[in-house]
Amino acid sequence: MQQQKRQPELVEGNLPVFVFPTELIFYADDQSTHKRVLTLYNPYEFALKFKVLCTTPNKYVVVDAAGAVKPQCCVDIVIRHRDVRPCHYGVIDKFRLQVSEQSQRKALGRKEVIATLLPTAKEQHQKEEEEKRIKEHLTESVFFEQTLCQPDNRIASSGPSLLTVFLGIVCIAALMLPTLGEVDSLVPLYLHLSVNQKLVAAYVLGLITMVILRT
């Protein structure tokens, strides 16, 4: 006798809730925005029942604040702002959507949506444009700062340094000085170099030549 497969027990509060949008903005000067729509999606294989809660229920009217969503379907929840006064401008309210199985009372998941009343859409548009302009300005500033630094780096790295050139000249001069033991020389004796000293100068000059060729 085969046993029926039981649906795995869902943990309370861990079920993801899919709601769009996650923010509601109402504009006092635009009556068409006083009504907003929340869409609740149910991507699961079982039906869900939902309930809409609010931190300030006296300011809003929620059409169908409770109901059910069939598997792999969605429902629209209409929310109307009914207290459009200047004292509420900028105040952030919250809605919470709780979902559960139709046969259960415990909430399997919840999602919060914020709601804000603004005096006019123009202020919001100006704010968004200002933020966009600042971001573009910062991006351009970083871009131009990088391009301005690059030529300086190329100039600094092009050609040998003065120290390298100076050491090369010293080595060449050392090789041109007379060697110890030469009698017929107008150069003072203390400037006569030994063979080992000239070998060292020649070795250093070879290293300097390699450095100059690489740069």
Automatic annotation (TrEMBL):
Pfam families recorded: Motile_Sperm
Organism ancestry: Eukaryota, Metazoa, Chordata, Craniata, Vertebrata
Protein name, as recorded: Motile sperm domain-containing protein 1
Location within or outside the cell: Endoplasmic reticulum membrane; Golgi apparatus membrane
Source organism, top-level taxon: Eukaryota
Any single GO CC term annotated in Swiss-Prot or TrEMBL for this entry: endoplasmic reticulum membrane
InterPro entries membership: Ig-like_fold (IPR013783), MOSPD1/3 (IPR039283), MSP_dom (IPR000535), PapD-like_sf (IPR008962)
Residue spans crossing the bilayer: 162-181, 193-213
Keywords (A to Z) from UniProt: Endoplasmic reticulum, Golgi apparatus, Membrane, Transmembrane, Transmembrane helix
Organism: Pogona vitticeps
SUPFAM superfamilies in UniProt: PapD-like (SSF49354)
Membrane topology qualifier: Multi-pass membrane protein
